[in-house]
Amino acid sequence: xxxxxxxxSGSGKSAYAEQTAxxxxxxxxxxxxxxxxxxxxxxxxxxxxxxxxRAGKGFRTLECxxxxxxxxxxxxxxxxxxxxxxxLTANLMFPGDAEEPKTAAAVAAEITEQVLLLAERxxxxxxxxxxxxxxxxxxxxxxxxxxxxxxxxxxxLAERADIVVEIVAGIPVFLKGAGL
Amino acid sequence: MRLxxxxxxxxxxxxxxxxxxxxxxxxxxxxxxxxxxxxxxxAFDSFHLWVRRKYEEGAEVMELTxxxxxxxxxxIILCDxxxxxxxxxxxxxxxxxxxVGRVQILLAERxxxxxxxICGISQKIK
Lengths: 180, 126
Known about the structure:
Distance between the termini of chain A: 10 Å
Strand order of the largest sheet of chain B: 2-3-4-1-5-6
Structural class of chain A: alpha/beta
Number of strands of chain B: 6
Oligomer: heterodimer
Order of helices and strands of chain A: EHEHEHEHHEHEE
Radius of gyration of chain A: 15 Å
Number of domains of chain B: 1
Radius of gyration of chain B: 14 Å
Strand order of the largest sheet of chain A: 3-2-4-5-1-6-7
Number of helices of chain B: 4
Helix content of chain B: 25-40%
Largest sheet of chain B: 6 strands, mixed
Number of domains of chain A: 1
């Protein structure tokens, strides 16, 4: 089973995704794939808050900020929560000062392939992604390309997911499939 | 309490006026009014703007919101969705968006109904 959890900032999508992953895992192993590159106090605070939320729920955390390939073997046959595609997309698109940013199409294809492989090998996969699409602003070309890349990943995965759910003020609104 | 969510200019106020028979002068304005001091009001409009002002004053917005609900248990709250865009560069802007989301979750938990207004149409989600 693959579940895609979508929502804006502060919508409660992490909490919903955790609950869903725990339900799907049952008594089996449960992995949390973290993607955030931590900068500064705010980043550390966010990591702390998410760790507190996950505490005692049986998640094993693996750092996947640079891609999912290294963890495919370990997470095979388990329940996996991947949080989140917006970070992963940013990390792969803007890898460092020295390298040129990749195109939206290339990044979308790369992440889609990795996530589908993860989904195929895992028993269950819950993926968190962000709605960054509705502020109507025009940004610099790099950010516009990022928006297109994340949109591409979301659309590709939504097509393949069993359940796609938008979280609004903590409430699940099902876009595809139904609640567990 | 009923919670009405939606993007900017989606027709939230008109929907509430028609559906819940609230008169224009009964809406309290988040831009200017001290929601936290009001009692037994029927409708709080632009709740996100009240959140912004309280956040900028350094107030405990979650606590003030709980007090507001205690003083106005049967009100309707209209609040814009502000978290569905590119994450802002400024720390305060990020914190504000996150805070509006958290306040919305609190309101949704306590609401008897939650509706999302899109193009003037209500989608009842609770």
